[in-house]
Queue: 2 jobs
Job 1
Amino acid sequence: MSHAIPARATTHSPPATPWWLDGNFAPVTAEVERAPLEVDGALPPELVGTYVRNGSNPVSGVSPHWFFGDGMVHGVRLEHGKAAWYRNRYVHTTMYEARAAFGQGPPGGASNQSNVSAIWHGGRLLTSGEVGLPYRLDPATLDTLGPFDFAGRLTSAFTAHPKIDPTTGRLHGFGYGFVPPFLTYWIVEPDGTLSHSSVVDIPASTMIHDFAITEHHAVFWDLPVRFDLAAAVAYVKDPTSGIFPYRWDPATGARLGVMPLDGSGPPRWFDLDPCYVFHGLNAYEDGDQVVVDVCHLDSIFRPGQTLGNGLATHRWRTDPASGRVADTVLTDGRIGELPTRDPRLVGRPYRFAYLVENRPSQTTVDLGGVIKLDVGTGDQQVWDPGPGAHGGEWLFVPTSDGEDHGYLLGFVYDTADDASELVVLDATAVANGPVARIRLPQRVPYGFHGTWIPG
Ligand SMILES: [Fe+2]
């Protein structure tokens, strides 16, 4: 990457700094506004809306894990070929206001960091930290309006990965708990009314980061990363201990649950080999089988392990006769994570997923450029920003009819000049590289998930 922003000194950290506080994982401290922004290339005029991405940005400057910093959103407004503004804002949670570290007091309700994702649905911009209530933000300013409980109807946590059914416009999601009920499924109508909530029976408190929907089903993966109360207590006593409140426990078993999308009955469970999955690419129905594509880890959170191992893209296919899941590797190409898909094909047969390359590393998360994966053939189209540049999640924004017809938006950080850009790629021509790069007034730390507010 190259651009004309004056180079600043690259942050050098002592070797003892954990990877999630090092380099561009390190938090930024300023809340900045800049308008308008310089653009290299041609910003597609049909992109009219606001891109908002959430991430972990500890206000104290330190955190015990990448997952446990205060939420900070970074937004870029695009209008008719211009980049109108950039701004970043802490999510002003009760924990942020109190300058409280994760684990100081029981997490839940408003007491969470709201640092994982941003969701636009029902005319509301929400952030989620997957623990406790979401927070509502003003989409025009990104200022925090407060915790949001759907008029008292949300009785569980709010996943960072709800899914919008492209046919009905309903938002389907869940929350998992440290105490029973361990899993609750809910549905929000297109007008923002929470219309359904029901308990899904699972035997233990496990970490369930994402799920999938199909045309007729909600699909849960209940995997053996188990809440560890003793570890959580030790962690609360000393958040610098490095003790993680979840642990790998293959004896808990691994299962895929397929339940009616309207929540009218319990899931049918299909056995899996122990593994862990943060993110699904997509899912769909194929006759009486359900197909789920996932970013599959062999394990995670073994003692002393802050990263998972054995990342690969897998396809799960339920077998109603055996009650098991057939598990195959989907591609032998580059490895990716933080998958997205064309939102018009959520839960439907699809061809393409878009991932950020996860370059092999035993000591850090080394993110690269775009992998556009054809899930039918396993073929990949790649854009690599170069070894010193690092992307994140690529959000797909549709602009014309047909799968893949749209643009990919994502922040890219360049180590060489310690600066970030919002990069825009034509999804149909990923290998051609960016069609536009928007220069940002400060670096954007690596983060998690974004959303698009159209119009
Ligand atoms: Fe996620």
Note: The chain has one domain: 19-339.
Job 2
Amino acid sequence: MSNRDDVWIWRHFENEDFCVKNVRLTLGRNLDINAAPNAFCWNNWATGKSTTFVWRAIDEKIPSAVALTGRGMLLQDMTCKICGADDENAMHILLRCNFVKRVWEAVSTWTNFPMPNNGNSVTELLQSILECHRSRFIRKILHAIAIQTMWILWRNRNDTIFSGKQRTAQMIIEEVKDTSLQGVRQRSKHNTITKQQWSDFNFNE
Ligand SMILES: [Zn+2]
């Protein structure tokens, strides 16, 4: 306490008057202001929860074992609880896990579109869909399916870890088909797509 009037100061610049330039300097030291923003393309045919989740996962901002350890939580080990083959980060949970690869293979077979998973990032996977030589309609469907698949894989991972539920890749793919069809029916004008069309992935465009 002193007899002087109160003044604004900014941390690390206690001897200077408060100014925005110093705030920017401090923030700039802690994060790269010039880094390219996460180039995620939103898709309103997938649920809001699933798109927000994938948007966060791209920047490794989901509570994987590796991310939690990075935030100072003491975990016994960081390995994937599903395959045990590697450390569990977002990339592993969504693309590289041995179990998850089987799901992506099934999605690829169903949609007749190769969902790349080996060594690719979530961004690359989504980008390859948006840039593929299919109609706009199919691209948007594939994009929504990929987002929905990642959300279901994450929920499955949580069920396995916290409730001990073990599901097969086949059960996951059925859920992906059902929920993604629901999403497209409810949120797009294509509300007459039948389950058979969806399952055959064959639409009268
Ligand atoms: Zn795994």
Note: The chain has two domains: 1-35, 48-200.
